[in-house]
TrEMBL record:
The keyword Flavoprotein does not apply. This is Enoyl-CoA hydratase/isomerase family protein. Belongs to the enoyl-CoA hydratase/isomerase family. Keywords: Fatty acid metabolism, Isomerase, Lipid metabolism. One of its GO terms (biological process) is fatty acid beta-oxidation. Pfam families: ECH_1.
Length: 282
């Protein structure tokens, strides 16, 4: 698939089968502009369908931050949803509909990360505030540099987090009470605490080391059958929100088709011959 240039993101192919997505506003600590959501969705929808990609690493450019959260200066300009013009709110009912549509679309853009068929590995460093936590919650694997500092920041902006942290974070970490504490106070927590609460899978000394680990994991995943990998991600995400019985039935129906893949005999032959298997694009 032909490469595409984005204004606020960089997308590269550092290794075979692996895409690297970077938030690319380092001079602004990768703060998120409202319009960036459209690029975010386009990137992950495109990579999801790209047969030359089997795993994705998502990080932030520069040394300061994965993302400092919403770009408050931009969001506070007159005419935005955060600071509407008087004429935009004359009819409260119509304004409420406009806000709901905007919020649902923003949610869908962030959810494109979770919806992506390919595993997404989020590498976090420096500031990871607000929408950064929403994004990280959508990833399949989270790796942090030791300098990472997190915050579910939205209550400090006068709003409840509505892009996914409050719905996904409780299903990731070990303590529901801890989620309430960090969400109600907006207090920061460091990489060590994030690891203790199982928000991140591991912590590395530097961003460079964390990024290297992310790329190594992506390469390892990319060596596996793409049919098996995509099915596994799909099963885990479905089963998270359903009963064990529903998950088993869903898996059985899915595998009724997936078990017909050529990847199975290829995998068996590779295991028996102690060779690395080669799989077709998907």
């Amino acid at each position: 698939m032909a490469s595409k240039t984005y204004t606020n993101f960089a997308v590269t192919r550092p290794r075979e089968w692996v895409a690297h997505v970077e938030i690319n506003r380092p001079t602004k600590r990768n703060a998120f502009l409202e319009e960036m959501r459209f690029e975010l969705r386009d990137i992950f929808d495109s990579l999801s369908a790209d047969p030359s990609v089997r795993a994705i690493v998502f990080s932030g450019a520069g040394d300061k931050a994965f993302s400092a959260g919403l770009d408050v200066v931009s969001a506070n300009k007159e005419g935005t949803m955060f600071n509407p013009r008087p004429e935009d709110t004359v009819d409260a009912g119509r304004h409420a509909v406009a806000v709901r549509r905007w919020a649902l679309d923003f949610q869908d853009c962030v959810s494109s990360i979770e919806r992506c068929e390919k595993p997404v590995i989020c590498v976090l460093h420096g500031y990871a505030f607000g929408i950064a936590v929403d994004i990280a919650c959508c990833a399949d694997i989270r790796i942090a540099a030791q300098d990472a500092v997190f915050s579910v920041k939205e209550v400090d902006l006068g709003i409840a987090a509505d892009l996914g942290s409050l719905t996904r974070l409780p299903k990731i970490v070990r303590s529901y009470g801890w989620v309430k504490e960090v969400s109600l106070t907006a207090r920061t927590f460091d990489a060590a605490e994030a690891l203790e609460e199982r928000f991140v899978n591991k912590v590395l000394p530097t961003k460079a080391k964390a990024l290297e680990e992310g790329l190594n994991l992506a390469s390892l995943i990319s060596e596996k059958s793409p049919i098996a990998v995509q099915g596994t991600k799909n099963f885990l995400d479905f089963s998270r929100d359903h009963t064990v019985e529903d998950g088993l039935k869903y898996t059985a129906v899915w595998n009724g088709a997936a078990l017909q893949t050529k990847d199975i005999p290829i995998s068996f032959q590779a295991l028996l011959g102690k060779k690395r298997p080669t799989y077709e694009k998907l």
